[in-house]
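Quick one: structure tokens for this chain, please?
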Amino acid sequence: NQFEIDDNSCALCDTSCSTCTSSGSNACESCPQGKILSIIEEEITAGSCIDKCEGYMVNDTTCRPCHSTCHSCIGPEITSCLTCPEGYILLTEGSEDANKGSCSQDETCPTSFYPLDQASHKVCSSCHASCLDCTGPNSSDCVSCRDPNILVLNSSSTPSIGSCYASCPTSFYNDPENSRCKPCSKSC
């Protein structure tokens, strides 16, 4: 539990460290069993020994901080957030990464995202790639389409929700005023 001062002398590590680079509780290189090494900066290899990780675990014994916009995370990137600070919402990138995302200071889900929790709107997931705005993750949950696509409504029971297509299918016509495909008259 010592560190080298110069070629001929050593000094004791802080009592919280197993090994260290210098004196002080923030110079630990390893910790006693049951403690976690918390390293604040990415390029630094020394830190302090703590009981609970407030960031993400690099391995079984080392903790690093989350990106500054995350409350909890699984890595250092801005897109590795698991939860967000108060006043932020979590934006996830769909089903393959549904548990992680980035935090945004928006009060509601932005364009191209829909609320996963209708009550709180604290977690938003990305719409299907064909949708500009949506009510869910599927291609049939579109409320509006990305250009140049056109919205084809699903049914009369969901009057503003549909799927996006490059052109109107048979027995539909393009209503450019609403950017939607509407059914042709039965007489056509």
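The CA atoms of residues 154 and 162 lie 5 Å apart.
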